[in-house]
């Protein structure tokens, strides 16, 4: 008798030219992920080969019940690690039937920024560090923590090994991170969203809850961020350190605007403690993890490279953050 796992992982690629495309989109909260699957003729090598689709926006808080149809535009494809074979995951953004981006479609404006000739010429690279917390399903308390209580003081857990330090390594421990990149332009946002979707599916199978809250547990603990490493072509070339310093100066002038778009609840995380700068203070430094912007020692030494924006919260929208960084550092002329 076949096991459930055998049936779920059934590979039909030798029997049909059809594949399953899992369409993924962002729901009405701006952080929730939704998806549904359709069968199409394969193989698919580009999102442009896929048809548009629709969904009931009244069920996701994105359209009224009397006019509920929202249109999905396929934008990027990825191999499906669950169905495998030629099956794909499809990152989509959302439009009205008239072709207008709906308010929660943050990809649309980011794509406009990245398609600007001045931005495209700079080939912006992003490396995003997505931190997250895994919670026990029924009590919403971190994995490995005694229910209603606390583990020992912070310190032994960072990049650690051992059952008393790396809790639940088989499904990932209480708070960890993954990294995406280097990715060029809009691809960084697509890749983070699809990676979040994959993580949601994995934690679903493991029976744990994924939290992107920037400070899920109050107290003397690090929060959860999405540190965003960034460079442009000019920054990566000789003399790039001066370009980096000018870019950081621009970011400082628009600090409040960036903070407002860098994630809900970030004020609970950016306190000036636990490797953060205070939310109302902008400062940068070399190898300073308590700064808003950190420059690596290798970048300073080589006179070129990248910098890290440490302000984004773990629940930030990567389309918003990457687009704003490019817009401020490349297109904005400053005051």
From TrEMBL:
Occurrences of domain GS beta-grasp (ranges): 19-99
Enzyme class: ligase
GO terms of biological process kind: glutamine biosynthetic process
A Gene Ontology term for the protein's cellular component: cytoplasm
SMART domains: Gln-synt_C
Domain GS catalytic: 106-335
Reactions accelerated catalytically: L-glutamate + NH4(+) + ATP = L-glutamine + ADP + phosphate + H(+)
Signal peptide (from-to): none
Catalytic activity, EC: 6.3.1.2
UniProt-recorded Gene Ontology molecular function terms: ATP binding; glutamine synthetase activity
InterPro entries linked to this entry: Gln_synt_N, Gln_synt_N_sf, Gln_synth/guanido_kin_cat_dom, Gln_synth_cat_dom, Gln_synth_gly_rich_site, Gln_synth_N_conserv_site, Glutamine_Synthetase
Keywords: ATP-binding, Ligase, Nucleotide-binding
Source species, domain of life: Eukaryota
Family (UniProt): Belongs to the glutamine synthetase family.
Protein name: Glutamine synthetase
Gene source species: Panicum virgatum (Blackwell switchgrass)
